[in-house]
Amino acid sequence: MRRSMVPMLVLALAAGCAHASSQQKLASAVTEAVYHNDISPVADDFNALIRPQLTRASVGALSDKMHARGDFQGLDQVQDDSKAQIFGYAAKFSQGSMLVCMKLDGDGKIAAYRAEPLDQGKGPTPSTSNPCSSLE
């Protein structure tokens, strides 16, 4: 009985891990890197036009804004515009949230990334029509 339960447990865990899209995994990795004020692990995920903007000052300022909201707890998708390659997420922190918007180029590299604070209780939800419209 134990032998048959192990493969089922592995399959259940694998199915749970496959739930997040590749775009959400990328947005989460970038958001965590910014939060930790170390963009180097994900710098190659940005396209060549955006990469020069990833300065210590710009990443540090955004990291400070994130830390003001507490511990990073993950992302919930609020926009998926696959045609325009624009993806939006509500970034959850222990003391608030932020809207994270990401636009990908034709090569799947990040062409734009923006994170801005959300008012308490007034954030985007999956029913919000287009919270990342400024990236279009």
In short:
This protein has about 140 residues and is an alpha+beta fold. Helices cover about 30% and strands about 25% of the residues.
List the helices and strands and how they pair.
Blueprint: H1 2-17, H2 22-35, H3 56-67, E1 72-81, E2 86-93, E3 96-104, E4 110-117
Antiparallel strand pairs: 1-2, 2-3, 3-4
How would you describe the overall organization of this protein?
A hairpin with a 4-residue loop joins strand 1 (72-81) and strand 2. The N and C termini lie far apart (54 Å). 31% of the residues lie in helices and 26% in strands. It has helices at 2-17, 22-35, 56-67; strands at residues 72-81, 86-93, 96-104, 110-117. It is an alpha+beta fold and 136 residues long. It contains 3 helices and 4 strands; from the N terminus they run H-H-H-E-E-E-E. The model is unreliable at 1-19 (pLDDT under 50). It has a single domain, classed as Nuclear Transport Factor 2, Chain: A. Strands 1-2-3-4 form a 4-stranded antiparallel β-sheet, with helices on one face.
Major beta sheet summary = 4 strands, antiparallel
Rg, nearest Å: 17 Å
Structural class: alpha+beta
End-to-end CA span: 54 Å
CATH architecture: Roll
Tell me the strand order in the biggest sheet: 1-2-3-4
> What is the overall pLDDT average?
82
Strand runs, count: 4
Name the helix and strand elements from N-terminus to C-terminus, one letter apiece.
HHHEEEE
Helix content: 25-40%
The amount of beta strand, in percent, is 25-35%
Give me the number of helical elements: 3
Tell me, what's the shape?
Answer: globular
CATH class: Alpha Beta
The count of domains is 1
Low-confidence residue ranges: 1-19
CATH topology term: Nuclear Transport Factor 2, Chain: A
